Amino acid sequence: MFVLKHNDSFAVLDAHGDALCRNEKEHDIADGLMTRDTRMISKLMLTVNGKRPHLRKSYLEDNNVILRVEGAAGDESVERVLFVWQDSLHEKITVRNTGAAEKTFALGYTVDADFLDLFELRGAQRPARGIGSAPEADSHVLVFKYRAVDGADMVSTAAFSAPFDSSEPRVATFHFALPAGESRSLYARYGAGAGAASEIDFSHALESARHFIARQIARRPRFESSNPLFDKWLHANAVDIALLTSETDSGFYPYAGIPWYSCPFGRDAIITSFQLLWQDPELAKGVLGLLAKHQATEESAFHDSAPGKILHEIRKGEMARLKEIPHTPYYGTADATPLFISLAGAYFERTGDKAFVANLWPHIERALQWIDTYGDRDGDGFVEYQRGAESGLGNQGWKDSQDSISHADGRLAPGAIALCEVQGYVYDAKRTAAVIAKAIGHDAAAVKLEQQAAALKEKFNAAYWLEDIGTYAIALDGDKKPCAVSSSNPGHLLFSGIATPERAKRTAENLMSPAMFSGWGIRTLGSSEKRYEPVKPPEGYHNGTVWVHDTAIAASGFARYGMEDKAATLMSALFDASQHFDGLRLPELFGGMPREAEQSPARYPVACSPQAWASASESMLLQAMLGIRINGIDKSVTVDNPELPPWLDALAIHDLKIGASKISLKFARQAGATSVAVIDKSPDITCHLAG
Prior knowledge:
This protein is an alpha+beta fold. The two termini are 44 Å apart.
């Protein structure tokens, strides 16, 4: 399947360029054109003389802007060019007569629009549906209408550049003759828009789509290495992030993933922004702005909201409008709120943008208040979660499947759960909030926050450390009993800095042990644990699979504690894994079985691809193994203990931006050691290089 996207619309099409009314229950994926959580085009199938063209090849080009499909109808060539722009799927189809005599053609488009909510496509059963009507046709346009249960009227169209025969319902047929050697092109637009399609509209939309993606990529530095496949992987990830990025009123925002999560998420966007911060801080600014705008102001059990809390997910479909689901927005996550504060602090360090964080400070204060009140449900100093309504998520960390938090004997953790990584996020949030507070003149608040962070670190290490396992408990359950299993969650503790140096080292050893490290990445749950299931859905979703972003966060944590060599090992593992997926695109997760020669990582059904924090993981891995840190406040770049893996002899980073200034660096590996040198830089940038 191929994915095309712009802002709030995306299309999932098969290799023919068609959509065939697929859904998750029957096909593990939904296809068609989706706009704001509604399927606006459910079926789109091309026939030539009554048959689907024979497929020769199909591929994405122009930085994933275009899907090009090359086929044949008999001896004649058929080419389709498709892309998404402004809530519409645009198409140009060209038929060429390659024979020696004139031929007649009947070009047929079967089109339908079912207006299903995305949650229906995932299997949700609804008490009632709205009313659709038979399509209306004029000479150039098929019009589909639907009146939702709440009375909202929705319209979707299939518009063409030439008049068609509409004698069959939901079918537009074009009859024409072509002399030998001649070709004819037809233009189409599906979804939004009124009036006939045209070549001019197609060309203008395509130019805009190309420019949008190019703008996203241009904000990032350019990479050049000794390994062409690695360069290709870096570019593929940059293109996928550009594809997933939407332009909002608050700035650029990376949507979580396609097909199920093409919408604003809190945690996912924050982590994606962390991963990309050293390359593209503009993304973090847009994320912080949108999340601040939607910060909760009231208590709601249905929405799992409370004043100061940061959202989990926003949906805009019919089911959300009718409150059949709570995502308007939904706030059922314990980690987005402290991560929001941490991202604000990291953004300030990366950019020195004091004016922005000063304006953000009231939102940071409200988030801190949520942590200390609503977040700490029992007043013990730790942040816990427990859903407010049955419609909400039972587990509210990033491992949000119902069976993801358990004890060593396999029992699910009861009661209000205090995840280990959430405490790490709170620790980092208070430390970074202290830095912001001091910078904008709130000295007393800064001192208090620093004291709170230090106290939390001591209390946490006393409550969560598992001496016999050599790692931290994944959580404390509602009775404050540690869930004593080996999991990937402690990797996030190294990322946040709450682990002591000696325990960080032992935690890293646990994460890189055969039980945790599959050879392709770090498992979410150790292979010796009762609930270990490396691939079978839904039990295996977070209980032994490898999640790409999770492995990257552990690598970042390793680097924080001076273990860049381990970060380089994880980079190698995921780079190797990428070569077993189409287009070098790593999905959000894959199976956690041990790596074996001549075997690929196991696919996980229903995994999103592309997924933002999977595509951005390469950036975090790269920063971790190179030991790069950027301080935009004093315009300094520090490189400490860089480590290139054996398959990478040289890597150059060109035009890494710090405000209006730039720096270019070159890393080289020789005799097992990695060196770094400055290629070029603006005069106002200071460098501290150790390598």
